[in-house]
Amino acid sequence: MIRNIFNIPAIRLMEKGLDLSALRHRIISENIANSETPGYKKKEVSFSGLLEDALANYSNGIGTTDPLAKNKQEDVIREIKTTSMRNDGNNVDVDEEMVKLAQNTLYYQALSQQVGAHFALLKTVINGGGR
Fold first, then answer.
1. Angstrom distance (rounded) from CA 108 to CA 95
2. Looking at the domain assignment, is residue 131 inside a domain?
3. 79 Cβ partners below 8 Å, 6+ apart?
4. In a domain, 55, yes or no
5. Which of 54, 59, 103, 129 is deepest in the core (most CB within 10 A)?
6. Are 63 and 13 in contact (CB under 8 A)?
7. Beta-carbon neighbour count of residue 23 at 10 Å?
8. What pLDDT was estimated at residue 85?
9. Does residue 90 lie within any of the structural domains?
10. Structural domain range at position 122
11. Do 20 and 51 meet the contact criterion of CB atoms below 8 Å apart?
């Protein structure tokens, strides 16, 4: 049996983590861009819960490793309506969003490095161990 070396569950899981991180980056950027828009309510990505579900399904060998498969992208993004930072109803705290952006960037970089390391290892194997 020939196995597709690019269709590895751990790599697919990391790929979905990268997809979710990219989505989160877009949402945080939108929040920052709208920080002065009266009445704008910040949005968040239900990030950790989706990744935990995907990891649980992956570990149990059931279901799918795609956290967005059963959830539409719109269902993953939620608007935070319960708070206000200013009198005009806007609830974006730019400092908080910048911290989230930095955290998300680090997460994305770490996942990218892991995927890159995996493919570097595959390259070494394909080339016969560097001989």
1. 20
2. no
3. 41, 42, 43
4. yes
5. 54
6. no
7. 18
8. 77
9. yes
10. 9-126
11. yes
